[in-house]
Amino acid sequence: MVRRETPYILWFDECTTTERPLVGGKNASLGEMTRAGIRVPPGFAITTTAYQDFVRQAGISTQIQALLDEVDYEDVAGLEHTSKAIRQLMGAATIPAEIEGAIEGAYEELCSECCVPDLPVAVRSSATAEDLPGASFAGQQDTTLWVRSGSRVVIRAAICWSSLFTARAISYRHEMGFRHDRVYISVGVQKMANAQTAGVMFTLNPINGDRSIIAIDSSWGLGESVVSGVVTPDNFLVDKVTLDIVRRTASKKMIEYEPNEETQEVEIRDVQAERQTCPSLNDEEIMALSKLGKRIEGHYGTPQDIEWAIDRDLPFPENVMIVQSRPETVWSQKERPVVGNRRKAGVAGVVDTLLAGVRVKPTEQKVES
User: Fold this and answer.
1) Is it true that the peptide bond before 317 is cis, omega within 30 degrees of 0?
2) I want to staple 203 with a disulfide (CB 3.0 to 4.6 A). Which of 158, 297, 312, 316 is the partner?
3) Please, how many CA atoms are within 13 Å of residue 126, restricted to the half-sphere of its CB?
């Protein structure tokens, strides 16, 4: 099927990190991984051009800036009021027909490519300033899961646009020194993984920064339960070199997020008693995830914070999917320990240096006078 060309749509397989100004951090990463052959559910980005044209044609940019100019960042209630006013202003604006048509057309093309009418998709914000090594902006804009039909995608995309001005996002941009009028938002529309299990994976230990470890958190159903923190997930620690599972912790997982086919909404369900304390991943799945984590970290050259899903509709290992990856922003920003002249000998020293990323302190040389 020939894709229609429009300035408002870029498909993931057309995106790289160089397209960040057009598709934002999240979509640029999804495109980069897609092009690298990593298993990512297919989809497309609604470009920042669509957002900018929407705001411009609605004639609301001056009003938005005026509201932001009056913000007292120490006044939490006032910040919430400003956020609400901006989002209401954007919600009342009309989306240009050309943009609406481009979004609906791209959704129809995605349905056709996946051979599924009314394909369930995730609609996620992707701002140009997010998922940076020093500023993640994670979770500050909207995401909607299990959206079906082009018209609903348009509605959810508009909500994503306005979520650029949540109180939290406004405050964080101010704190990080980003100008509000220089940050734009794209929207990712991605085929949903019908997750039997999902979660997050760090290519270091998020507790202590140990780069020799891959840490995987998992729970039943869609990954929202893990990302939002409403369950205590299972946890698996994997040796990054040998891929041995060095620790397993199976938690009691009492709820899961699952789609309701009748309402076309995601709902919270009770997990059956016999599944609550069962590990939500088997060893093969842990191994497959760990290999993908190493590959993604190697591609980007820095530790990653990854969201993943195991799709119940696909066979293993094709069902192990990556739905998002961003730079890890806590331990990666800290100084690595400096080691003096006394180092482990042989293989142990080599492994320590490679895995811990140790910077060796230069030896001072005495110059004979």
Assistant:
1) yes
2) 297
3) 35
Q: Please check whether residue 320 is in contact with residue 39, taking contact to mean a CB–CB distance below 8 angstroms.
A: yes
Structure tokens at 72: 């007292």
33 contact partners, CB below 8 Å, separation of at least 6: 40, 296, 299, 322, 325
Helices (H) and strands (E) in the chain, counts: 11, 15
Tell me the pLDDT tens digit for each residue of 230-250.
999 999 999 999 999 999 999
Decide the pairing of beta strands 121-127 and 185-191: antiparallel
Residues of the chain with CATH 3.30.1490.20: 9-191
Residue 37 region, left (φ>0) first, then alpha (ψ -120 to 50), else beta? Answer: left
Helix, strand, coil in percent for the chain, rounding step 5: 40, 25, 35
Domain limits, CATH 3.30.470.20, in the chain: 195-332
Q: Which amino acid is at 105?
A: G
**From start to end of 203-354, where are the E strands?**
213-220, 234-239, 245-249, 255-260, 265-270, 304-311, 320-327, 338-339
Place of tokens 């069962």: 278
- What CATH number labels 9-191? 3.30.1490.20
Residue 234 near residue 250, CB atoms below 8 Å: yes
Distance CA 284, CA 250 (A): 16
Of 192, 242, 239, nearest in space to 216 by CA? 239
Determine the topology of domain 195-332 in CATH: D-amino Acid Aminotransferase; Chain A, domain 1 (3.30.470)
For 310-355, the pLDDT digits (tens) are: 999 999 999 999 999 999 989 877 766 544 444 444 555 555 545 5
Rounded to two decimals, the pTM is 0.86
CA dist 7 and 106 (Å) reads: 12
